[in-house]
């Protein structure tokens, strides 16, 4: 049975700070005991560099590191483990595809396609390669309620588009985009698709083969895993064609002063000493999520979302941003006459952890003609009491600011 009160006890931060109301999981998740214990165990018992070492510690470190690659492939239902590239996070994975896939293929007049709700990490890399190649960055608009404009998307699909890069769940609006519908539409025009799954990897069981997605990226730290870890999945044909863009140890097959032969995938894209401890530990985070059940997590987030929207809607002067029909556990809002940073500062003093600002989505703020929002994001360890404390805290802030609450 999915019991958030029991789940909460698996996170030491709530043992140290029992009254903490952590509502910022879209930025990063807290870490359970199992993840923290395994990272410490790695450094105490298995610490060595991976690959090539023939002594016991090196063999153990390599087994743990490559074991996570196998675990990641199962987690995503990837055809082969070699299609899993370890990165430092979602941003790193997107930049890899931008530099190694998009940049070599783009010519003047070509197009790349993104949505208007993308995180800057899924905007700037494409913007920069378009500038370098005199290509065009096309943008799919969203509707005032935060839903993607599907008709506009279909109108923008054409043979000039060399890649569609799209978030699965908006980190600001909470909108869940219908990638299972969008990917076939793009493929019908011969357009490869990259999906940013940073916000969906916890609550959605992603099957890359069923989706037929070309690239998919996510971060470990939003999956209850270590910071500085991430996964890029790619179709084998694309990964084999793509040149590396980081050079150094481990990613080579043979080197002379005149030329270098690169290793096959995945090593081709993993130059230098990686975050071995983080990667080794990431598998336990995947186990943790699958043990809870992603459908159970999604149901829990919907329950908190509906409760949160209901309770906060009664506060005078509140304005929500992102009210799509299909929405995840993220609420963005403003309170009339109170700056989001003032709200976040005062709530933070009460150990109510929310985020204020543009959330690395300045074009969304420009669309709504606001400087920023307050963002509340739920996770597995949040309980109904967190929502009630948030509502109480907001009303207290209004009192401090001289507002009727």
TrEMBL record:
Q: What are the record keywords, sorted?
A: Pyridoxal phosphate, Transferase
Question: Organism, per UniProt?
Answer: Haliscomenobacter hydrossis (strain ATCC 27775 / DSM 1100 / LMG 10767 / O)
Biological processes, Gene Ontology terms: cysteine metabolic process
Q: What does this protein do?
A: Catalyzes the removal of elemental sulfur and selenium atoms from L-cysteine, L-cystine, L-selenocysteine, and L-selenocystine to produce L-alanine.
UniProt-recorded name of the protein? Cysteine desulfurase
What molecular functions are annotated in GO for this chain? cysteine desulfurase activity; pyridoxal phosphate binding
Cofactors: pyridoxal 5'-phosphate
CDD domains listed in its UniProt record: SufS_like (cd06453)
User: Sorted alphabetically, which InterPro entries does this protein's record hold?
Assistant: Aminotrans_V_dom, Aminotrans_V_PyrdxlP_BS, Cys_dSase_SufS, Cysteine_dSase, PyrdxlP-dep_Trfase, PyrdxlP-dep_Trfase_major, PyrdxlP-dep_Trfase_small
Which intervals hold domain Aminotransferase class V? Answer: 21-390
Q: Does the record carry tRNA processing as a key word?
A: no
Please give the family membership noted in the entry.
Answer: Belongs to the class-V pyridoxal-phosphate-dependent aminotransferase family. Csd subfamily.
């Amino acid at each position: 049975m999915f019991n958030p009160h029991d789940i909460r006890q698996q996170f030491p931060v709530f043992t140290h700070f029992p009254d903490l109301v952590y509502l910022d999981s879209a930025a990063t998740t807290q870490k359970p005991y199992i993840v923290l214990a395994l990272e410490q165990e790695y450094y105490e018992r298995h610490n060595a560099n991976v690959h090539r070492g023939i002594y016991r510690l090196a063999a153990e470190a390599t087994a743990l590191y490559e074991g996570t690659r196998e675990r990641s492939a199962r987690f995503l239902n990837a055809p082969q483990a070699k299609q899993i590239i370890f990165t430092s996070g979602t941003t790193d994975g997107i930049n890899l595809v931008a530099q190694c896939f998009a940049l070599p293929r783009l010519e003047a007049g070509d197009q790349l396609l993104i949505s208007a709700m993308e995180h800057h990490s899924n905007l700037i890399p494409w913007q920069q390669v378009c500038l370098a190649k005199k290509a065009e960055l096309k943008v799919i608009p969203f509707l005032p309620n935060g839903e993607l404009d599907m008709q506009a998307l279909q109108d923008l699909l054409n043979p000039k588009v060399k890649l569609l890069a799209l978030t699965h769940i908006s980190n600001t609006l909470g909108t869940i985009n219908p990638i299972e519908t969008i990917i076939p539409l793009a493929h019908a025009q011969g357009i490869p698709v990259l999906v940013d799954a940073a916000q969906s990897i916890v609550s959605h069981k992603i099957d890359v083969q069923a989706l037929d997605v070309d690239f998919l990226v996510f971060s470990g730290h939003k999956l209850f895993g270590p910071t500085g870890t991430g996964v890029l999945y790619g179709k084998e044909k694309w990964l084999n064609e793509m040149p590396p863009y980081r050079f150094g140890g481990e990613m080579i097959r043979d080197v002379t002063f005149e030329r270098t032969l690169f290793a096959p995938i995945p090593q081709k894209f993993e130059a230098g000493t990686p975050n071995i401890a983080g990667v080794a530990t990431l598998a336990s985070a995947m186990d943790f999520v699958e043990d809870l059940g992603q459908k159970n997590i999604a149901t829990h987030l919907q329950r908190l979302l509906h409760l949160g929207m209901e309770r906060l809607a009664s506060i005078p002067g509140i304005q929500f941003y992102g009210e799509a029909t299909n929405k995840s556990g993220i609420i963005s809002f403003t309170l009339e006459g109170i700056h989001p940073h003032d709200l976040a500062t005062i709530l933070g003093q009460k150990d109510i952890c929310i985020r204020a600002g543009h959330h690395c989505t300045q074009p969304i703020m420009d669309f709504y003609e606001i400087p920023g929002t307050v963002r509340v994001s739920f996770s597995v360890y949040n309980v109904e009491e967190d929502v009630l404390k948030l509502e109480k805290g907001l009303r207290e802030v209004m009192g401090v600011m001289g507002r009727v609450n």
